[in-house]
Amino acid sequence: MSQTLNPAQRRKAWWTAGVAGMASYMDAGAIVTTGTALVLYREEFGFTEFQYGQLSALLTAMIAVGALIGGPLSDRFGRKRVFTLTLILYVIAAAILVLAPGVGWLYLGILLLGFASGADLPPSLAMIAESAPEGEEGKFVTLSHALWMIVIPIVNVIGIFAGNMGVDGARLMYGHLLLVALVVLVLRWRLPESQMWQDKKNAVETGTIDRASLKVLFGRTYIWALIGVSLFYGIQNIAANTNGQFAIFLFTDVGGASVSTASLLNVVAVLIGLVGTFLVMRFSDTPLRMPLFLVGTVLAILAWALPGMLGVTTVTVFVMAALFWFAQQPSGEPMFKIWSQEIFPTEYRGAAQGIAIAFTRAVAAGAALLTPVILDASITVFFFSIAGVLLVAGLIGWFWVSRMPQVLHKEKTLGPRGAEALTGDRPAS
């Protein structure tokens, strides 16, 4: 298929990937923006530390709930319908947070923002994979992760200017999300429905195939793939989430850097990671995918082990952050996004992703509670623990998930009944 696309068709495929992939931009934007904006709102509204913790936890919890609900709904009612409705909800939530007159409105806005962010992810990623040229799905899906990475320095730069503006700065930061969401909503309105989803729907209506049931997803054909991809993403994300939540703390309270220096170094580390994302886009659909996964896993483990071996300083923490941001691209979340498209059929693709994302958010929340305890007990144990977590995730990815049959390719080749060829199939390389 990819060899027969004309330039106009390829531009359309990239356009779909970019517009749908903005779900990842909105997701990361919600997380990073809320981390800073709550500090500014707290100065104005005077809410307690307990309320601050509640609001932060509420965002994470609702992203998990949203993914768990949005995924199955997109399998049942279509990718476009669901991710259009979720983005409308995102716009409403961002508007509430921009205009919030008190802390009670923050609870409502963050609840809706988290739910909309989570529910938007599975149908958006499925749309990208199903609309991508055959044999290039990895490249197109990885674009969504590049958008996830790009928003981090953008929000950080906005935060530099908004940090001294008090509550107006918080409103400005959420205003950025509102503006972007409105633009994306207009662009998404013109996207056609996923042709693969439409073909599957037509096949069900004509009786060619049976209507999907979630019982099948939990049956022997797909359950091990679901468990494998969920464990891989959930365990690997412990390191990624810890790096995102505690990087500034490690730079300042442990490494001795100032907040401004820490913020600058963290942005540089993220930009280095973005280079790794484009590396994945270049090679994820080639035989070099798994060798890069192996190299990325080894480098990620080494990144976290370095401060444990050499001591925690500004230099070692920066090397750890930069190396890990780079290494996790071929060995972390981008691979989850690719694998979760490839190994589940169209009628279960959204639901499977929703379950994996929800599980991962729950694991991340639990790990965030334990991290300060481990840091307080032993810095060395903390860094080697994260290195160990990455080793476990790498083993699951290499020996388990990567060997699952690639159903997506069969569907694109054989049509709606392609997933039925899964039984007895050889593992994909």
From TrEMBL:
InterPro entries referenced in this protein's UniProt entry, alphabetically: MFS, MFS_dom, MFS_trans_sf, Sugar_transporter_CS
Residues that span the membrane, as ranges: 12-40, 52-70, 82-100, 106-128, 140-161, 173-191, 221-239, 259-281, 293-326, 379-401
Gene3D superfamilies from the UniProt entry: MFS general substrate transporter like domains (1.20.1250.20)
Keywords tagged on the record: Membrane, Transmembrane, Transmembrane helix
Top-level taxon: Bacteria
Pfam families xrefs: MFS_1
Localisation per UniProt entry: Cell membrane
Main location (coarse class): membrane
Topology of the protein relative to the lipid bilayer: Multi-pass membrane protein
SUPFAM superfamilies: MFS general substrate transporter (SSF103473)
The Major facilitator superfamily (MFS) profile domain, residue ranges: 13-405
Name of protein: MFS transporter
Organism placement in taxonomy: Bacteria, Bacillati, Actinomycetota, Actinomycetes, Micrococcales
